[in-house]
Specification:
Mean pLDDT: 83
Strand order of the largest sheet: 1-2
Helix content: 25-40%
Largest sheet: 2 strands, parallel
Order of helices and strands: HHEHHEH
Number of helices: 5
Strand content: under 5%
Structural class: mainly alpha
Length: about 110
């Protein structure tokens, strides 16, 4: 029972290994808690961390996410659900979100 979807090991394993600041680790932990098929806004993550004015800092920490397969940064959206930066490209972010919502097969090529 050590699957990411079940959340059994995210805090134990994920946040001991990657390099990052305490703030980055806090952001990555918030992102890791976003369930399959769900999304959150950068501002929501900032507010949860008690730093509602740190939306851009959340974005910067997200961009430094070294474990994007496990810490699903594609699930973060901009204000009013806007698709914003993604290291793999917005077309891949769109494809991942559509796949998770059950709206499309997974097609990441290109």
């Amino acid at each position: 029972r050590h699957t990411r979807l079940q959340g059994d090991w995210s805090s134990d394993v994920l946040f001991r290994s990657p390099r990052g600041t305490p703030f980055q680790h806090a952001v990555w932990e918030q992102i890791a808690g976003i369930g399959h098929g769900q999304t959150r806004a950068y501002g929501s993550v900032a507010a949860t961390l008690g730093k509602s004015g740190a939306v851009r800092a959340v974005g910067a920490a997200t961009g430094r996410n070294p474990l994007s397969i496990i810490v699903p940064c594609h699930r973060l959206l901009g204000h009013r659900g806007a698709l914003t930066g993604y290291a793999g490209g917005l077309h891949r972010k769109r494809a991942l979100l559509a796949f998770e919502a059950g709206n499309a097969p997974l097609a990441l090529a290109g």
